[in-house]
Amino acid sequence: MQIDVISDTICPWCFIGKKRLDAALAQRPDIDFEVVYRPFQLNPENPREGVDRRDHLIMKFGGTDQAKKIYEGIVLAGKEDGIDFDFAKQKVLPNTLDSHRLNHWAHTAGVQEEVVERLFEKYFIDGEDVGDKDVLVEVATEAGMDADVVRRLLEGDADEARILEEESVGRNMGVSGVPCFIIDKKYALVGAQDPDMLLRAIDQAVAEQGQPGAQAF
């Protein structure tokens, strides 16, 4: 069964959503799942070098106090799923196009799960800039990808158009927030759903396998 997850590598709820999806899939060991992470950019207007995160929060929330309250809730939610968010370490709000390119190559190489997880950890726990090519090459290397090949691809524009086109597919489907889980091309669940909710959609899709569903990706 294919599960498409539309997400961004700097979306904290996407990290939480991944943990909850992992927990749900672990409860159905008899099902052969193919999880594919699809691109979405929360801040596509960011320059490739990213922007100062503090300045962004001031512009978005009118100050850091309101942002602090919002992120305190995310920290608490993360702890319930085993994530130790450390937003204080984050200095840059990255442009995520290159990280989505890496995710695409990782899927081709069969290591997307590892790369997606490590990108989330790098940004949300270690406070590293996942728009930085050196960080991306390090993630790729940890996942067993060829560092020289990945660096060469990142230095060019390989698959940029493909990522932007794939993102537009999601937006044309009506996806305006992430994470968004598309179960067996039939059911779309938006937000970091609890494992039980994901399981209900999975079980329903299993019961209906063989019937036509929505055409997505």
Short structural summary:
With 217 residues, this protein is of the alpha+beta class. The protein is built from nine helices and six strands; from the N terminus they run βαββααβαααααββα. α6 packs antiparallel against α7.
Total strand count, please? Answer: 6
What name does CATH use for the topology?
Answer: Glutaredoxin
Strand proportion, as a percent range, falls in: 5-15%
| Uncertain parts | none
Q: Judging by the overall fold, what is the CATH architecture?
A: 3-Layer(aba) Sandwich
Helix % is 40-55%
Describe this structure in words.
The chain has one domain (2-207): Glutaredoxin (3-Layer(aba) Sandwich). It is 52% helix and 11% strand. It has 9 helices and 6 strands. The chain has helices at residues 12-26, 53-61, 64-80, 97-109, 112-124, 133-142, 147-155, 160-172, 195-207; strands spanning 2-7, 34-39, 51-52, 92-93, 180-183, 187-190. A hairpin with a 3-residue loop joins strand 5 and strand 6. Helix 4 runs antiparallel to helix 5 (112-124), helix 5 crosses helix 6 and helix 6 runs antiparallel to helix 7. The longest helix has 17 residues, at 64-80. The two termini are 14 Å apart.
